[in-house]
Amino acid sequence: MSRQPRTQNVTTDAGEARITWVTSPAPRLVLAVGHGAGGGIEARDLKALAAALPGHGVTVALVEQPWRVAGKKVAPAPKTLDTGWRGLWPALAAPGLPVVSGGRSAGARVACRTATELGAAGVLALSFPLHPPGKPEKSRAGELLGAGVPTLVVQGGNDPFGRPDEFPPGPYELAEVDHGDHGFAVPKRSGATEEQTMRVLTDAVTEWIASLG
């Protein structure tokens, strides 16, 4: 059983951020995951990881960027998000364990852009926004391909920001959540429940993290 979550506020050059720690009773690494530009740490995939991974030796750190902590509705520019993530990193690394840098959507981009400089043990990219919807020519593949550390992408099969078959070859692994949209919601006609969908996601992440050694 994991312990009760605890929150920690962290001052960064982008403002005050917040970490919600869901601690494993026998942690061997930390998975830090940030939210997207349109939501917070209540996203179904982040909640599912926080529930499942502590039992597998992974402490989950749910990270809220300063703009969310301040109650703003719109995310700032990417460089400001990167500044917030960098400012949080010493707190994420404080337990003395390897840290996997992760996030969903915009948070996944932040993790990719900063992984090498921060010394991340890996990157978990949930719903990586490969391109804006309907604009495949505006690819962000360079961020993903440039992460420089072991990387897992978990992508919904119907994600308008990039379906799995749109991703270029590269030094990363990709797990598909069948029928999932950008938030990993699946249509009722698929026959899959949210619980089943989230189990696909958490199983893929658990297996990948175990492979990191």
Give an overview of the whole structure.
The chain is an alpha/beta fold and 213 residues long. The protein is built from six helices and eight strands; from the N terminus they run βββαβααβαβαββα. It has an eight-stranded mixed sheet with strand order 1-2-4-3-5-6-7-8, with helices on both faces. It is globular, with a radius of gyration of 16 Å. The two termini are 22 Å apart. The mean pLDDT is 96.
Summed up, the helix count is 6
First-residue to last-residue Cα separation: 22 Å
**Percent range for β-strand residues:** 15-25%
What is the spatial order of strands in the main beta sheet?
A: 1-2-4-3-5-6-7-8
Write the layout of secondary structure elements.
Elements: E1 6-12, E2 15-22, E3 29-34, H1 44-52, E4 58-64, H2 66-69, H3 78-93, E5 99-104, H4 106-118, E6 122-126, H5 141-145, E7 151-156, E8 173-177, H6 194-211
Helix pairs in contact: 1-6, 3-4
Offer a concise description of the structure.
The protein is α/β, with parallel strands linked by helices. The chain has helices at residues 44-52, 66-69, 78-93, 106-118, 141-145, 194-211; strands spanning 6-12, 15-22, 29-34, 58-64, 99-104, 122-126, 151-156, 173-177.
List descriptors.
alpha/beta; single chain
